[in-house]
Amino acid sequence: MRILTAIGNEELQERVRDASFDIIDEVDSLEALEDLVELMPMEGLILNRLLDNTGDNIIRICKKAKYKGIKVVIITDDFNSFEEKKLIGNLVNQGVTVYLKLDEVTPQRLEDAYNNYPQEFNYSLLAEPQENIKVERVVESVFKEVITVYSPLSQGSTTTAVHLAFALASSKKCRVCVVDFNPLKPAFKKVFNTSFEFTLPDVLDAVARQNLTYERLESLTKAYKMQTNLDILPGIYDFNEYYSSERQQYKEIIEKLKFNYDYVIIDTHSWFDVVSTDIAIKLADKVVVPVYGNIKDIEEVNRFIKTFEMYDDYDIRKFKYVINKYNGEDLTFIEIDAKLHGDIAGYISYHRGLEKGNGFSNKKIINEYIDVLNSMGVRINKKANILSLLRKKA
Question: Pfam families under this entry (predicted)?
Fold first, then answer.
């Protein structure tokens, strides 16, 4: 097995050398490793967490490793601090499930790790004995996925976000939070037909005061009356409050939402240079891009995405396209697939009622969104209608 290492400690490196690996290179800095991961063929990476003060380099490397199917082992000496748990959560999202303490690094442990690389992370590693029940409750539902909905042409991001969230919550045993990060066109009051005691500015204020705990964050959301495992965080209804917010505040909100929920769905504005939109796209595991199925809109979306790729604004590999309000006047499936530069997650047909509110009670609509989620790797079953159930029984 071909392994690349970045350890920076001779004693640890010797233990790795004693394992039955083909070590293709040994580097002492993570900066040097980033290019090597892209250029050199390998099956495994062994990284020393202590080489990266912030964790940013490790996250970037592990994203590239996940894309190339490389198994990563992290050597660390800390599982308990908040910052380290947050980093491990980000790494778990990149498929990294093996973490060894410094004194656990032996040839046998390393060989076992790669021969039996676990599919799931053992969250009990993060539990502190004196708070075992509380910590396990938090980590059982954490670090699944952040899905950002971004439409550069304003072609249904809010509708898509709320229906993806409802489809998830109503069809899968999980906790979902849908968040409005669109400061120019907040729409959750209309879509959910409800009022809210708290909105995003209350959460931003808690971040600014440095008192946004996980419990406080959950108390500022509102459970949806039709689906109680779906929490709602409405947006900014006074645009002046957007100007007083900062980039780091949105980042902290997303990171803490990931601890409380299995899935976080974020609605954004079409302007990617709006701070909340930019952060939501960068921190997302997947980005859903609604677009209409005509040639002009498809060409315009292609232009946006090519620009993102040219200037390395975002990782466009995580962009998934949804053809919204699909109807008989649009291009055919084959034509759209040929002209759109990206992966198509699904088609949402035109429904007149969505313009006035939501389609949560319409099983046909929800099943279309379930198809989108399934194509993105979120495994859930479609909702059956009464007629189909009667036919099965007959």
Answer: AAA_31 (PF13614)
